[in-house]
TrEMBL record:
Domain Enoyl reductase (ER): 14-359
UniProt-listed SUPFAM superfamilies: GroES-like (SSF50129), NAD(P)-binding Rossmann-fold domains (SSF51735)
Protein name: S-(Hydroxymethyl)mycothiol dehydrogenase
EC numbers, comma separated: 1.1.1.306
Amino acid sequence: MTHQVRAVVARGKGAPVSLETIVVPDPGPGEALVKVEACGVCHTDLHYREGGINDDFPFLLGHEAAGVVESVGEGVTDVAPGDFVILNWRAVCGNCRACRRGRPQYCFNTHNAKQKMTLLDGTELSPALGIGAFAEKTLVAAGQCTKVDRAASAAAAGLLGCGVMAGIGAAINTGNVGRGDSVAVIGCGGVGDAAIAGSRLAGAARIIAVDIDDRKLEKARSLGATHTVNSKESDAVEAIRELTGGFGADVVIEAVGRPETYKQAFYGRDLAGTVVLVGVPTPEMKLELPLLDVFGRGGSLKSSWYGDCLPSRDFPMLIDLYLQGRLDLDAFVTETIALEDVEKAFERMHGGDVLRSVVVF
Ligand code: APR
Ligand code: ZN
Ligand code: ZN
């Protein structure tokens, strides 16, 4: 059997997305068909539409999603029809060198659904990040589904599937933020704000938010920042040092993805502190640092890939914290929109007042 559903498709480089009817096959071995309930609009979707990822148009966009498993294929035992799940874009293999060494977050043998979703004329779709959830139903690998408590709002839960997990994970997994630590977060968009929320969860005593936009700083405060620095008005490094008794922060999280903000992170940390790069640089960007400073300052420089998350460990835990009122995921949902409004959400993305627009079905 196949299913015909409405979906948001990017047909060509830079062209506005269109609402299409697509054909979704029943799940094959190891696959699951998910009825999507909500899916956030992420910068990466726009990046796909602009041709910045690759040229495999048409793309079926959307990847920050939660929904209910409708049916599963042969051999699927981890999830069952009726389960409320968050989708992830890294279903690890379990067999490669990284997986066998207990570091599945570095598995690059990840897999998506094998069968193809298509347009009505049979043209194969490339699902964004192997998910494609701006669709009433989508086909994924069962390993991309993590069951969580049904009591969570789908709009909030879906955000854990990408940007919010990246930020929280940068703090709690990669940065290893601990009780009493001082943390600085440079760049307070969705990812940086999530790093702030994660630092608060981890028990950081001092959380310094750095941004160039006062509105962002205000929002950061509501998520747990104890101090804010507008780095257009004052020097970020000096301000961070001043707020940490002259030392610098134990952990600095860079959530912009630019050489100048990375430098601020590098010099804004305490000797032997940790810098976490979660902002994604472009291929042209280069970083120049005196090697003597790298040597002399010690500590560690890390990058955070998908928040170093393990969906099966992190998603249910974070949903529990959310349901207990200890992690405000709803704060990341700026607006809920209809499927036909994804293009408008792309336009609003650069306005500075939207953390996440979320399509709710
Ligand atoms: N210094 C400080 N903050 C800055 C600077 C700067 N020079 N330039 C931009 N910012 C702030 C913006 O004002 C905004 O609040 O960084 C924030 C970026 O937020 P978003 O554009 O909403 O991006 P976000 O979704 O948070 O992602 C941030 O992480 O995962 C990556 O690809 C993603 O590189 C991106 C980064
Ligand atoms: Zn693997
Ligand atoms: Zn994303």
